[in-house]
Amino acid sequence: MDALALEAKGDKAPAAAAAAPTKRPKAQKKAKRIVYFEVEILDAKTKEKLLLLDKVEPTASILDIKSMFHKSHPQKYPARQSLCLDPKGKSLKDEDVIQNLPIGTTATFYFKDLGAQIAWGTVFLLECVGPLLIYLMFFLRIPFIYSPRYDFTTPKHGVVHLACMCHTFHYAKRILETMFVHRFSTGTMPLRNIFKNCSYYWFFAAWMAYYINHPLYTPPMYGEQQVKTALMIFLFCQLGNFSIHIALRNLKPPAVLLAGSKVKKIPYPSKNPFTWIFWVVSCPNYTYECGSWVGFTVMTQCVPVAIFSLVGFIQMAVWARGKHRSYLKEFHNYPTLRSSILPFIL
User: Fold this and answer.
1) Orientation angle between helical segments 303-330 and 193-212, nearest 10 degrees
2) What is the pLDDT of residue 34?
């Protein structure tokens, strides 16, 4: 009986083992097939083929394409390149990705040479160093500017000395901000523009300095009270301008992370009272800049300074309106109460 039982159990064991489900190996996922692009770059004017790139990854950016083009055309570094989808079209942004563009797997880009480029930081430094030195030359009355009998003489009016200190402070501040505060979103500008920019600042600096430091210069009509009031306006706006530059700097990533980064944020007021103007103005750095020159105009009571202030305001108003429109276009929740440069006016 025990033998039969053991035999029966022995017969059931293989059957049970056979009945147990066997685990099938999981099917391996098929790797996604990458669709590469073929990129052809033509000259926008002559339609001459400049480069053919095969097997370009779909995640490649326009900046990557420019870098590849630079390897075959070393003199055309990325900053001086403009790539368009149409010969007369708008330049594509460096951060644009190929697979997101309205093109097929065979793409044609049109190349435009933007010409020699120069770093924005260098431009700012040249724009500021020139007026700083030019004004001091007139203040020190070096030879060949005024009559020889006034060479290296000291201006007799205190407001002339004060104006020199304010002018020097303004441009020294701008130089230091360029070196340690500003973070430029765009790295370069056409080299040819530097002559236009420098001529504007250098010419006005010489014109203002000539009259303010002239031996026949007369002080403001309302005397010391006018000078003190204007000085307060000037210093207040200089501090405000600096505060806004710091606030705008904090919106951008550090220089190490800046390359390829196009992070944009809405500037808002902070605990600093000088930034509260952000509630009603989109570009308060221009507002404070204009205020500084208004103060300098009242302080010196000089016509060339007034003309420079007016021309500067017109130009900054154009820049501010463009920036304001850009904010409205990029951010659907942008504060509607803000004006571009003058609260509730402009």
Assistant:
1) 140
2) 78
CA distances from 100 to 59, 62, 92, 96, 278 (A): 9, 11, 12, 7, 35
Q: Report in angstroms the alpha-carbon separations of 13 from 3, 10, 18, 332.
A: 16, 5, 9, 73
Q: How many C-beta atoms surround the C-beta of residue 225 within 10 A?
A: 9
Contacts of 5 (CB under 8 A, 6+ apart): none
**Three-class DSSP category at 190:** strand
The candidate with the shortest Cα–Cα distance to 124, out of 183, 46, 77, 70, is: 183
Distance of alpha carbon 105 from alpha carbon 34, whole angstroms: 11
Q: Please report how many Cα atoms fall inside a 13 Å half-sphere around the Cα of residue 184, on the Cβ side.
A: 15
Q: What is the secondary structure of 23-91 as a DSSP string?
A: PPPPPPPPPPPP--EEEEEEETTT--EEEEEEEE-TT-BHHHHHHHHHHHSTTS-GGGEEEESSTTSPP
The encoded tokens of residue 315 equal 């130009």
Q: Which long-range contacts (CB under 8 A, 24 or more apart) does 305-308 make?
A: 305/208, 305/212, 307/204, 308/204, 308/207, 308/208
pLDDT in tens, 14-54: 444 445 556 666 656 655 677 889 999 999 999 999 999 98
Residue 184 is predicted with a pLDDT of 75
Helix (H, G, I), strand (E, B) or coil at 279: helix
Q: Are 84 and 109 in contact (CB under 8 A)?
A: yes
Count Cβ atoms below 10 Å from residue 234 Cβ, excluding itself: 25
Host H or E run for residue 297 = helix 284-300
pLDDT in tens, 157-213: 999 999 999 999 999 999 999 999 988 766 788 888 899 989 999 999 999 999 999
Q: What is the pTM of this model?
A: 0.81
C-alpha triplet 15, 20, 23: angle, nearest 5°: 145
